[in-house]
Write a structure and sequence with these properties.
2 copies of one chain form a homodimer. Chain A has an 8-stranded mixed beta sheet with strand order 3-6-2-1-9-11-12-10, with helices on both faces. A 4-stranded antiparallel beta sheet of chain A has the order 13-18-20-19, sandwiched between helices. In chain A, strands 15-16-14-17 form a 4-stranded antiparallel beta sheet, covered by helices on one side. By secondary structure, chain A is α/β, with parallel strands linked by helices. In chain A, helix 1 (16-31) crosses helix 3 (63-87) and helix 5 (152-163) runs parallel beside helix 7. The relative contact order of chain A is 0.10. Chain A has helices at 16-31, 46-57, 63-87, 119-126, 152-163, 197-208, 213-222, 274-284, 313-322, 324-327, 353-364, 388-399; strands at residues 3-8, 35-40, 92-95, 102-104, 113-116, 130-134, 137-139, 145-147, 168-173, 194-196, 226-230, 238-241, 253-257, 261-269, 292-294, 301-308, 331-335, 338-344, 371-375, 378-384.
């Protein structure tokens, strides 16, 4: 007998039939003798419908009230799923974020979980009930409802698994695991049986979008065993865990990220401290800077070039233009017609040939590289957006086959 | 400066335009220097939509989960109304039932308010904010969400007004006050400026349906001044209060109630205790018995005839048939083609002519009376349902003109 946390996203609970499908998965897990805590998101389009209602009222809503509004989505899901479980004869009880003990900081719409007072969940498990918890939400110390932001339900699930010392946290999605590349782009993409937290983190942050990054960080921090699996077909998924399989594949995946833009600051005086001023400005505005390139000084001036998430491009440009005097550039240029393509794999640390294999594959396909970034377990290149899918296939072919 | 509680029903907040209409009423009240607490119901069809979602899953849902589901309706309303108030520059904050301190008993779907811990509301008022509270809901001592049942938002509003010692509790509806009869039936119906709690209670329980009965009882108990007014046009409504205006109209209203059925038990032995057994059975099943008629004993047997709410007719019939041996009747008959028409007015206590005027009006219109019931402030007759509107007009004409 084990304690298993199962998380189901909005697509998995979108309508009556899917709710019963989820209920059957949950009931089967319980019937096998396990304690089960289920975390669910809002049904399919509920969140969009609620956002639309708010947009009819104001384009500048209070973030507290947005949380009040959006948190109803998961509350509807948990009630309906619990009813479906009841219909299958599986005793269950639903708990909102606050009832489940999720305490967060005060940052509305993207709160961080501070702790989980899991007494209520434990009590209900002790009554032999499945506990159905609303993902994505909690309350702050003023008892105001907060939400966790994008992918928050994954984080809720991992946090509960950590708090309860669960044996496994299963994240059910519409894919049946983590692949070596997006199967929609690369036909020969293979499902991985196992992947490390670090590899998963690189893949998630690089746009693989199977698992929310914060949830993987949390799982790594607390040693929670994760499994990514499909709610649609009953096959083993991909296990995410700490241990590195040294005999495993050299690389674990090829990822494409089109949520990226390049910012170039031209004519920055080539004196110490200028780059620091630029990047501390970005940090103050909480803009994530990724790949950085700096031209060597030429006649006393240099160019500072870096990438930011596409949706932060405008605020980054505005911030830089307003503060141009502080670092002395003479022109800001932005470009959004780019994509980042990366290979990820803990195995590459000891294999110096990875970069050259990657660059060769791109060269043979006539794809130009604008920027390069490397870490111990990944290599990323920035290329033209229109060549991204071709690049993913070429690189996947070179490493995975 | 006064403290005013304003309650708006589902129709009043059904869409964007109506939400802004409500927001303007609230903002105006605040701009006149008042503290304002607003209680709102779920938007228009939201509750029906949620009920439909549940019905797709099960026809026998857990009542706890129904409360979890339905309480989202008001939560959506309070968030949207608070956003609309913000858009008008009126500082406001929304509170769910549990945040507003509504503590109820454990009866899911028709809980009773036990107390209101109004500290949070008071704190927010002290910050010069309008407080927008979700009606219809609270939590029990296990921190489970409960709902108050039909008309619950009226009760929420009156309970807050009582807890805060508010100067006035305004119930906004789609009519602009309490009328001497339903204006859709009686063209000459007049709006009342003032009515007593007792009169209002009789009118509400007799089917006038302007105010929920429990809310009037609560207002009477705690001396809360009520005003029934319209959210559509800005005219004074009807004040409901304790004081009787001795110089006022003889009768305050004529009401029709078609939610009524007659149950006849034929051939009950004419010995002591048989009626007691019948009505204690009804009381055990919480069936409200209203008018009672008993035929005089004939050859050792009598007939026991009484009215119940139409929607309790079948359970009453079933209960009686299953227990026929206990009171010895030989046949149960039910009839649902009846209506109850009543005149209400505290003034009639000292005017013995009321009954005869009423019966004369019915006689002149050739309307047959099946049963009669009187109290200090009302006279009710049971007649054929198809003659109900004619009867209301005839009686209204005789008393009000």
């Amino acid at each position: 007998m084990a304690l298993i946390v199962q998380k189901f996203g909005g697509t998995s609970v979108a309508n009556r039939d899917r709710l019963f499908n989820v209920a059957r998965i949950v009931a089967n897990t319980r019937n096998e003798g396990n304690d089960v805590v289920v975390v669910v998101s809002a049904q399919g389009d509920t969140t969009d419908d609620l956002l639309e209602k708010a947009a009819e009222i104001t384009h500048n809503p209070s973030q507290r009230e947005m949380d009040m509004l959006l948190s109803t989505g998961e509350q509807i899901s948990i009630a309906l799923l619990t009813m479906a479980l009841g219909e299958l004869g599986c005793p269950a009880i639903s708990l909102t974020g606050w009832q489940a003990g999720f305490r967060t900081d005060r940052t509305h719409t993207k709160a961080r979980i501070q702790r989980i007072d899991s007494e209520r969940i434990s009590n209900e498990l002790a009554k032999n009930r499945v506990v159905v918890v609303a993902g994505f939400q909690g309350i702050n110390r003023h008892d105001d409802i907060t939400t966790l932001g994008r992918g928050g339900s994954d984080t809720s699930a991992v946090a509960i698994a950590a708090a309860l010392h669960a044996d496994l946290c299963q994240i059910y999605t519409d894919v049946d695991g983590v692949y070596t590349a997006d199967p929609r782009i690369v036909k020969k993409a293979k499902k991985l049986d196992v992947i490390t937290f670090d590899e998963m983190l690189e893949l998630a942050s690089l746009g693989a979008q199977v698992l929310n990054n914060r949830s993987v960080e949390l799982a790594k921090k607390y040693g929670v065993n994760l499994e990514v699996c499909s709610s649609m077909n009953n096959v083993p998924g991909t296990i995410v865990k700490e241990v590195v399989d040294v005999e495993g594949m050299l690389i674990k995946g090829v990822a494409k990220d089109v949520n990226v833009a390049v910012i170039s600051i031209l004519g920055v005086p080539d004196v110490p401290g200028m780059s620091f001023k630029v990047f501390s400005l970005m940090a103050q505005r909480k803009i994530n800077v990724d790949i950085i390139l700096q031209s060597s000084g030429n006649e006393g001036y240099k160019d500072v070039i870096f990438t930011v998430p596409l949706d932060e491009m405008e605020i980054a440009r505005k911030t830089l233009e307003e503060n141009m005097g502080r670092f002395g550039g003479n022109k800001i240029e932005v470009a959004d017609n780019v994509a980042k393509v990366s290979v990820v794999g803990a195995g590459m640390q000891s294999h110096p040939g990875v970069a050259s294999t990657m660059f060769e594959a791109l060269y043979e396909n006539n794809i130009n590289i604008h920027m390069i970034s490397t870490s111990e377990i990944k290599i990323s290149v920035l290329i033209d957006k229109k060549e991204a899918d071709k690049a993913v296939n070429a690189i996947h072919n070179a490493f995975v086959g």
